[in-house]
Every structure is written in C-alpha cells, then in structure tokens.
Amino acid sequence: MQRTKTFVAENVEKIAVLLILIGTGVIHCFVVDKLPFLSFYYLPVLIAAWGCGRRTALLISVLAVLLVALYAVAIPANFDQKIAEKTEELSKNKAEAAPRVQLEAIEEQIANHKSDIHLSLVSWGSFLILAAALVGTLYEQKEKKAEDLRQAYVGILEMLTKCLECTDRHVLGHSQRVAELAMEIARELNFSEKAIEKVKVGGLLHDIGKVDVSLEALQKTGTLSKEERAEIQTHPLKGAAILRSAGEVLRDVVPIVRLHHQDILNPDAEIPHLPHVKLDRELRLCIGIIEVADAYDAIVSDRPYRSGKLPWQALEVIEDSAGTQFDPEVVEAFKKVIARKM
C-alpha cells in the first residue's frame, strides 16, 4: 500500500495527464464534428509539458496525433459532418441510379474535403508537437535553474555546518554524517526525492541551535551542571527560531529541528505546538530518522569524556530502545542500512 502511495505521489502529473488524454479522447468519439474539438488536445499536452517535461509532452502529443490521424483515415465519415453528409448523399444517388457525372461530382467533393481535413490535421499536429517541445523545453530550463539553486543552497548549508563544528574537533563532521545516514534510511523507507532532501537538510541543521549555546557547556569534559544541561537542551528550540528567520526556504525543516529530541512516541508526552504544522506519518518518520542517525553517530564517535563504541554495539543500543526512544519502523530500516556497511 505504501509503495502504491509513493508511486502515485511521484507520478501524479503523468497520471493526471493520461486521464485527461483518455477523457478527451472519449469525449472526442461522441462529438459529431470532430475538427473544432481538436484544440482540446492542447490541454493534456501543455499540462504534461509544464508538469513533466519535454519528453513526456512529446510522447503524449505524438500519441494524440496518431490516434486522431488513424481515426480520421479509418472512419472519415465519422470524423467530419460534411463528409458524412456527402457520403450519405452519394449512397442515396447510387441507390437511385443517378447519372455517373453527378456521382463523380459528389466523389470529387468528398475527396477535396478529405484533403482539406488532412491539411488541417497536419497543421494541427505540427503545432501540437511544436507546443509540446517549446513548453517542455522551458519547463526543463526552469527545473535546471531550480536544481542548481537547490544544490547551491545545500552546499552553503554544508559549509555552514562545517564552520559551526570547527570549534570542536570531537563533533567535526557530525552533521554531515548524520545527514548522509539519514538519507540512506529515508531511501530504505521508500521516501520520495523531495522528502529525502528534507531529511538531508534536517540532518545538516539539526544542531544549528548550538551556535547560541555557550562553548564552555558544549566542550566541558566533566559532569554538566543543572544550568548547563538545561542550556544545551534548549538548542532544538533555538535552532527552530534561527531557521524561521529564513522564511519559506527552510519552513519544512523547522519541525524536524524543533522536535528531533522530543519524545513523540509517548502519547502522554507534551509535544510543543507548532503553528501550521501537522505531525503526520511522514513528518514523524523524518524526525525519527534524524533521532536514530544522530544517536548512532554520537555513540560511535569519540567524546572528551568517553571513547566511541563499535558499530554493532551502537546497533544493539538503538535496537534496545526501539519502541520507547526510537521509532520501530525507522530502526528496522536503519538495521538494513547498517547491515550493508558492516
């Protein structure tokens, strides 16, 4: 069921265009005069071009042209009202044994009208395919620019996290490793590419709030005081506040950063209210992924107050906390990812 939902979510434009094309074709079969109705085929083609790209739009436009051409050639009398009328007139005259000259005149009229229709179909088909190629090209250029912008902003985020972590060698590269592991877990859970990117950015920025926490507390090798522990525990709240200042760009990442240390599995836990945020299954899994990836990297990494554990030991710790601290579904996916690494 989940695979079906993922497939539909990733191919919603193509499915919609196919349904529109089928619907247009069905309606086309019940229209008496078909030629004026051909303009409606621009609708699915332009939607395909703007939503799916040039290749899909060209395929749909060529398919539409072939279907219409086959219909016009195979059943010309059903394609155009005038041809139907002339064909009926010809049959009637033949039955009445009309003069041969009269029959030839009607046949010539039918042939001329067929030529006009064929010329109209060639013009319509050419413009339909041209529109698909043009709008599809514009869409792909727009997507390329958007992808370049996304890569640039992810690169900037990676540089930002490295700058933030360079003050403490023990956590250097932590956010990058969390992001990479989180992406692998998300792929194991069959996340869409958009959701995987959201998880990656969440992994890169999950500790961004520590920039507003004192270095003394972060780098302390001894036991933290009550005040120092409380200050460090505020970093998800501070991180969310920092990300909100970026506006819409990082809006989807704010709840992940804000809740990545929250006990969202406990129905009795008090979860902070986030305006305009619905804690649905995907968001819960995103938060759970960051929790597991963050915990794993923290367990296997050396710290001033302890040495890092071996991967299998970290796996046991996380397995033991499945269902209480960590989401069981995420832990199962995490186990498969780690099994491939060990």
Structure at a glance:
The chain has 342 residues and is mainly alpha-helical. It contains 16 helices and no strands.
Structure, described:
It is a single chain. By secondary structure, the chain is an all-alpha fold. It folds into two domains: 2-142, no CATH class; 166-341, Hypothetical protein af1432. It has 16 helices and no strands. The model has no long low-confidence stretch (mean pLDDT 78).
Key traits:
342 residues; mainly alpha; Hypothetical protein af1432; 2 domains; 71% helix; 0% strand
Q: Over the alpha carbons, how many angstroms does the gyration radius reach?
A: 32 Å
Count of discrete domains:
2
Task: State the helical fraction.
Answer: over 70%
State the major sheet: none
How does the overall form come out from the CA principal axes?
A: rod-shaped
Structural class: mainly alpha
* Sequence stretches where pLDDT stays below 50 over 5 or more residues: none
Strand content: under 5%
How much is the average pLDDT?
78
Q: Architecture of the largest domain in CATH?
A: Orthogonal Bundle
Helix count from the secondary structure assignment: 16
Order of helices and strands: HHHHHHHHHHHHHHHH
The number of distinct β-strands equals 0
Instruction: Give the N-to-C terminal Cα separation.
Output: 31 Å
The CATH C-level name of the largest domain is Mainly Alpha
So, the CATH homologous superfamily of the largest domain? Hypothetical protein af1432
CATH topology of the largest domain: Hypothetical protein af1432
